[in-house]
Amino acid sequence: MRIAIAPLLLATAFASSASTRRRVVRWTHAEASKRIYSGRCPIELVFTGTIGAARRGWFTYAWKRSDGAVGPVQTLRASKAGETLRVSEVWELNGTTEGWAQLWIPSEQRGSRMARFRVQCK
Fold first, then answer.
1. What range defines the domain where residue 84 resides?
2. How many domains does the chain have?
3. CA angle centred on 115, ends 33 and 73, rounded to 5°
4. What is the largest CA-CA distance in the chain?
5. How many CB atoms lie within 10 A of CB 91?
6. 20, pLDDT greater than 50
7. What does the pLDDT read at residue 13?
8. Rounded to 5 degrees, what are φ and ψ at 5?
9. pLDDT at 107
10. CATH of the domain at 80
11. Per-position b or e across 18-29, b if 16+ CB within 10 A of its CB
12. Three-state secondary structure call for residue 4
């Protein structure tokens, strides 16, 4: 039993190490233009994302939202390691709500922390 598990653990460790080397995106960050808003609606919230490149190369990104929508997948190219790329998304809200948006990197199956917001329409 131990002999069967050890190779599996070794293969898993090697696979995750190899996939880490291929990553283009080192980190992501997302924020909302208004975290808490109270006023007239409709309101446009702008979500801004920052993407830090681990190396040069192509990658895809999209915006995921708390209402279940996923924006169109976009492709970007990092021209060098350490490059910082900025992207944005506009979401028009017509009523009182709270939620989040997340910068998602489908090419690497990971995303930023959720940029949370609350809107109170008057």
1. 24-121
2. 1
3. 95
4. 66
5. 21
6. no
7. 34
8. -75, -40
9. 84
10. 2.60.40.3880
11. eeeeebbbeebe
12. helix
b/e burial code for range 31-64 (CB count within 10 A of at least 16 → b): bbbeeebeeeeebebebbbebebbeebebebbbb
Cα–Cα distances (Å) from 5 to 2, 16, 17, 89, in that order, read 5, 17, 18, 45
74 three-class SS: strand
Q: Is residue 36 part of a domain?
A: yes
Contact 49, 103 (CB under 8 A): yes
pLDDT at 21: 54
Mean pLDDT over residues 65-92, rounded?
95
Q: Does 48 fall in a domain?
A: yes
At 83, phi and psi to the nearest 5? -65, 140
- The answer to whether residues 60 and 106 touch, using CB atoms and an 8 Å cutoff, is yes
The pTM of the whole model exceeds 0.85: no
Are 64 and 99 in contact by the 8 Å Cβ rule? The answer is no
User: Contact, 24 vs 66, CB < 8 A?
Assistant: no
Looking at the domain assignment, is residue 2 inside a domain?
no
> Quick one: which of 65, 36, 38, 67 has its CA closest to 49?
65
